[in-house]
């Protein structure tokens, strides 16, 4: 058996793990959910829950991965032998497969818009009918499928190259580039007339707008914004040296994720308010509203092109992590099998994602439980599979793993104070599972 791969550096691990977390949830979903929930108050609640819930869950996945020292399936088997807890790894595999199958469809949409922005065709949309343009694009089966395939092709090629030469190398390029491009976009957005209104909307909380639904939405977003519940972080941390501190790495990733969320808000909301548009446009914010705004600015389509590059980088780094999680389980860490299985699994995901890609065109009228394939896959992952995954992981670490093993992993690389560990352990054991169940029940009641 070949020696198992490892990250070449701590920075490579942090950037790769942060790239996994900083995907559609941070750049696409967070801005429109914030817009729909009143802005600043939602942001404050999200930050609170990310620190009190997201960070502890991230540490939980890290402790499983490095203590288990294998892929998601193997790690659970080693830590709880002769028990069915390895099912968490299987659940993560299934969730990542379904998630990437429709995630790649959105990735394909980004590729389409990136191409159109680069060629200048977005700047010449008749009557600025960007909602009609988006509807026509996603209804075209040839365009949707070909761009989805391109997105998956890039993902497959990178993962096939391995942890160091593929994922880590690309993350070291994409994540700094993402930060630089975002900074440029924020500066441009903040120089627009009346931009301060957008800044106030994002940063000035109005707790009079907070409802129980707002709290639950913020809590739910904190669960999903760090790629938790699908054992991706279990897989990534299994490649990390024992010399590195898990708490320091987790804090770095959370800080980077929060920074990107803030940058996304500062890039979008000042522009939205500057042009007198509503911040609660919903999921179409990126594809309808932003092109309309940027088209009215000097060199606007250049800046929208930069935004799309940022968006694509974020989507790809998340795609890498999902495919890697599955490939790691199938190959059992054997690098000789990586290339073949990356292609087999990646192409399989593309095929499974075809109905989702056609959900707005040829298969728009084909529905299950009143939902298209795309909507059903999204709902199943976001509202059922990922919450169950986070719940089981919290229970596994705090009730099934040996407490001494967990403490040992969190103390490697830098001593963790007993008091901090006990507080974290209490949260994970008693508070977080209850909160997850509350969110799940609330979501399912709305069906």
Automatic annotation (TrEMBL):
<feature type="transmembrane region" description="Helical">
    <location>
        <begin position="216"/>
        <end position="239"/>
    </location>
</feature>
<dbReference type="InterPro" id="IPR047218">
    <property type="entry name" value="YocR/YhdH-like"/>
</dbReference>
<dbReference type="InterPro" id="IPR000175">
    <property type="entry name" value="Na/ntran_symport"/>
</dbReference>
<feature type="transmembrane region" description="Helical">
    <location>
        <begin position="132"/>
        <end position="161"/>
    </location>
</feature>
<feature type="transmembrane region" description="Helical">
    <location>
        <begin position="12"/>
        <end position="30"/>
    </location>
</feature>
<keyword id="KW-0813">Transport</keyword>
<keyword id="KW-0472">Membrane</keyword>
<feature type="transmembrane region" description="Helical">
    <location>
        <begin position="384"/>
        <end position="402"/>
    </location>
</feature>
<feature type="transmembrane region" description="Helical">
    <location>
        <begin position="85"/>
        <end position="112"/>
    </location>
</feature>
<dbReference type="Pfam" id="PF00209">
    <property type="entry name" value="SNF"/>
</dbReference>
<keyword id="KW-1133">Transmembrane helix</keyword>
<feature type="transmembrane region" description="Helical">
    <location>
        <begin position="42"/>
        <end position="64"/>
    </location>
</feature>
<feature type="transmembrane region" description="Helical">
    <location>
        <begin position="297"/>
        <end position="320"/>
    </location>
</feature>
<feature type="transmembrane region" description="Helical">
    <location>
        <begin position="173"/>
        <end position="196"/>
    </location>
</feature>
<keyword id="KW-0812">Transmembrane</keyword>
<feature type="transmembrane region" description="Helical">
    <location>
        <begin position="251"/>
        <end position="277"/>
    </location>
</feature>
<feature type="transmembrane region" description="Helical">
    <location>
        <begin position="423"/>
        <end position="444"/>
    </location>
</feature>
<keyword id="KW-0769">Symport</keyword>
<feature type="transmembrane region" description="Helical">
    <location>
        <begin position="341"/>
        <end position="364"/>
    </location>
</feature>
<protein>
    <recommendedName>
        <fullName>Transporter</fullName>
    </recommendedName>
</protein>
<dbReference type="InterPro" id="IPR037272">
    <property type="entry name" value="SNS_sf"/>
</dbReference>
<comment type="similarity">
    <text>Belongs to the sodium:neurotransmitter symporter (SNF) (TC 2.A.22) family.</text>
</comment>
